[in-house]
Design a protein that fits this description.
Helix content is 35%, strand content 38%. The chain contains four helices and nine strands; from the N terminus they run αββαββαβαββββ. Strands 3-4-2-5 form a four-stranded antiparallel sheet. A hairpin with a 5-residue loop joins strand 3 and strand 4.
Length: 255
């Protein structure tokens, strides 16, 4: 009797084991036979920038002394820093910083192809980061008035870029799901899950950023100036707009 019972238990175990193996095999086969649908969508929006970053340069030189070149540069830089600091709002995230400072002798080659000292030069690059875009022109004018020599660049940006990107990605994802559902239903199938999703955001300026750093008084005696057009009170700055793109590609399982 014990032998019969033991044999029955062994047989039952083998049967259960075989059943589990068979179910697992069927699941694997089903997974391998699942179809997929791929879709690509995008969403975009034009936004007005709310932050500007101005890069200014102060360059000074002296033919005989590096110390004189650096001293003059420091004097001008202090004036520019002080004036611009009064035009920004640090409580709103605005700031001014030195991007690069350099002091060096400058060499040239004479007619005999000999390397000779030409002058000593000091340069200080200042970055102004502010949300007071309306004051950008006044800041440039004031810096030039106090001795800044170059406006290297003006870059406009959006402070809540990440939030805008996330919103557009959500819109693109909804488009993707809607489209894949329509295609799947039309094909007599339905979506069962997501295989993979790739996404990214990018931006570009819709309108070209423009700025003018030369005043009519500095055009020269031979320049043609239209006296009927009054000189603007500040350097005109056109921020334009920024177009943000959200791109999404996804692959869905169907059954």
């Amino acid at each position: 009797m014990k032998k019969i019972l033991l044999a029955s238990l062994i047989a039952g175990t083998i049967a259960v084991g075989s059943q589990i193996s068979t179910v697992y095999a069927d699941t694997t086969t089903t997974q391998q036979q699942r179809g997929t649908i791929s879709v690509s969508t995008n969403a975009n929006a034009d936004v007005t920038p709310d932050t500007v970053e101005i890069s200014l340069a102060i360059k000074t030189n002296d033919s005989k002394s590096l110390q004189k070149a650096t001293s003059e540069n420091k004097l001008i830089s202090d004036k520019v820093y002080g004036a611009l600091k009064n035009m920004i709002n640090t409580q709103n995230g605005d700031y001014i910083k030195t991007a690069n400072y350099n002091a060096r002798p400058v060499y040239v080659y004479n007619s005999n192809n000999k390397r000779v000292l030409d002058k000593y030069e000091a340069s200080n690059n200042i970055i102004v980061h502010t949300k007071n875009i309306d004051k950008a022109g006044n800041m440039i004018d004031k810096a030039l008035e106090l001795g800044a020599t170059d406006v290297n660049s003006i870059n406009f940006s959006l402070s809540n870029y990440d939030n805008k990107c996330n919103s557009l990605l959500e819109e693109a994802a909804k488009k993707a799901k809607t489209r894949v559902d329509i295609v799947a239903k039309s094909s007599g199938t339905y979506v069962t899950g997501v295989k993979n999703i790739n996404m990214n955001c990018s931006e570009n300026s819709v309108n070209r950023i423009q700025y003018r750093v030369m005043k009519s008084a500095a055009l020269g005696a031979n320049a043609m100036v239209d006296e009927a057009v009054p000189e603007p009170t500040a350097t005109p700055i056109q921020s334009g707009s920024i177009k943000i793109y959200a791109n999404l590609s996804a692959e869905y399982f169907i059954k």
